[in-house]
Amino acid sequence: MKRRRRRRRIEFEFHPKYLWIFCIILCVVLMFVSYRFPERFSGVKTAVGNVISPMQRGINSVGKSISDRLQAFRDVKKLRAENEKLKSQIEDLTSTNQQLTQDKYELDGLRRLYELDAKYTDYDKVAARIIASDTNNWFYNFVVDKGSQDGISVGMNVLAGNGLVGIVSETGKNWSRIRSIIDDNCNVSGMSIETQDTCIVSGDLKMMKEQDVIRVEMISLDAKIKENSEIVTSHISDKYLQGILIGYIQDIEVDSSNMTKNATLIPAVDFERLDEVLIITELKEAYDFD
What CATH homologous superfamily does 125-280 map to? Predict the structure, then answer.
């Protein structure tokens, strides 16, 4: 029997680095030859250029697109960081502005109280802040943060703005309730600062809400009170110290009995916007508020 001979396969091992070295050598040789004999290889250069140029343009286009996208991404990231920084700065500035506004509001209030205090230098006074009021926009009955431990007593006069607010009607250890002159149950004996003619200033919350005025009654027919005359607390009042500005006379007319005249009065105090008051720590006389 004949034996079949097995053919042996000859295997060649070709390491990639040798191919890489070969390519480098080939490129160097081609570069040298093309440099040494440029005329002979001009056609090759042109052919290669025609093949490579479109590829190069495409690669450049793709590269530029990728570069632009990366730059846009970096710009967006930068803008987001700047936006967050600006938001933080805006929040800080808003907070600072609110604090400055509050400080200015408080400073203006203290300045008005100082001017009011200087206007009535004959009386000792205690400043108090309003901490509660009735559920509406008008301060006709409210509570302040000073009480008996601060020397406050029932019947003491209360000032704000340019003049009279009202009177202390109730006190606790560290609080007091104030009844203002616009309250329906409040009557103040007043007089014209120019003519000394007397009258009664009566609270009227409805008129105050509708017309920003309260009532003035019991003006004698021969009184010389005029429009815009200043009305102050009179010397005959048993509750209010003399000479405190109440407001300004408007719309004088003879009443239906033809015996006296009536009018309206614009209060010297803005009863829609009260924050702090001055309480005169002096009573005109011993007084039972009830």
Answer: Rod shape-determining protein MreC, domain 1 (2.40.10.340)
